[in-house]
Amino acid sequence: QLVESGGGSVQAGGSLRLSCTVSEVTSSTACMAWFRQGGTRKREGVAAMCGPGKSPTYRASVQGRFTISQDSTKAAVYLQMNDLEPEDTRMYYCAATPWVLKGAALIAEDYQYWGQGTQVTVS
To answer: Distance of CA 16 to CAs 50, 84, 85, 123, Å?
Structure first.
């Protein structure tokens, strides 16, 4: 149901825009988020949004550099990543849940639907 694209290799300070298309636009996309994982590190929440009435949330290390957005049909969600750092090198995953989550909505266990991931490498 979720397909990511837009990953690649960039130099530090560069930008990438990740896209996630949703094949079934139903209530299963009440909250959508981007997570990332690399090496032995745990999957960590990067950014999330849960509808027009709630502000997007971001992990502290990407605040001000990354922006999550969603098209009006909820058929796609995007992650604009600016001023990329080598520390941002990870596999990035799109996730969705039918539940309107409370709090920051950046806990992986709260999401039921996942894409296959797209690699981001910053050198």
So the answer is: 23, 8, 12, 13
The Cα–Cα gap between 37 and 47 comes to 13
Q: pLDDT tens-digit profile of 46-95?
A: 999 997 778 999 999 999 999 999 887 778 899 999 999 999 999 999 99
Q: How far apart are CA 26 and CA 4, in angstroms?
A: 18
Secondary-structure breakdown of the chain: helix, strand, coil percentages, each rounded to the nearest 5: 10, 45, 45
Taking alpha carbons only, the member of 94, 95, 68, 72 closest to residue 81 is 68
SS3 assignment, position 88: helix
Q: Which residue has the tokens 């849960």?
A: 50
**CA 25 – CA 119 distance, rounded (Å):** 25
